[in-house]
Amino acid sequence: MKIIQGELYNMFASFKMDDLITLGSNLEKYYAIGMEEKRISQRMVEKQLDKYLSSTGELQAVEIENDWFPTVNADVFLSHSHKDEKQIIALAGELRSEYGLRSFIDSCVWGYSEDLLRIINNNYNLKENEDGTNIYDYEGSNQASTHVNMILNSALMKMIDKTECIIFIDTPNSLKVSNIKEGVTASPWIYSELLATRLLERNIPIRKSKKSFMDQMFVEHSGLKVDYKVDISHLTSISRFDFAIASKPGRKKGKELLDQLYYNKFWKGKNNESE
Fold this sequence. Notes:
By secondary structure, the protein is of the alpha/beta class.
């Protein structure tokens, strides 16, 4: 683990949450706010590929990634099933309006991949049959899919590494839990994101405003369906109520609230045990 001061690479905490059902009557209110957050995360993308061509005619993956799957400034990365998208957007709305936290909703990125793949296939792999109908070249479209998925996955990994806190939303749609330590998911994206939370280096956030208890805390404690077995034993359970508790002392918001949340979840109990 290393301490980094700055904004580029600072993933620190990974949680799992399973209490979205408690949004209840507030769902529509927070959903409207969350849709504004989603629109901020999205941007209009180019529909032509000419701007991504090098002088020798190759597509430039880095340029495509920057335009189609841009990273945004967010405090929380929400990893989830697309089937739970409305509840996730509502959760993002609640985190923003009640706690001053900006969320990155990963399905905002997923949506672009199919559009990009279609444009690439239409430009490079579209062929005409003898009867005049159009089809995609099999090998060419497979190669295009490989490239687009790699670009997308790279963008997601960078976003996870850039975001301080990742919350995996544990629902029957995202994970078929077999026990508390592991489960099975049909989503390759969820599998990749959860694997990243195990492999990426944890970076202790350094607040510019004031020296916080974070320093003390870490002196002492450091169509085709495929099932992917995932390890979730390293994820700390969290609920929406935990955010409310963390905000109560002085109505904390933003980074200050996250500091209190980390203190409550990672250090407070251990400190009490040692006394």
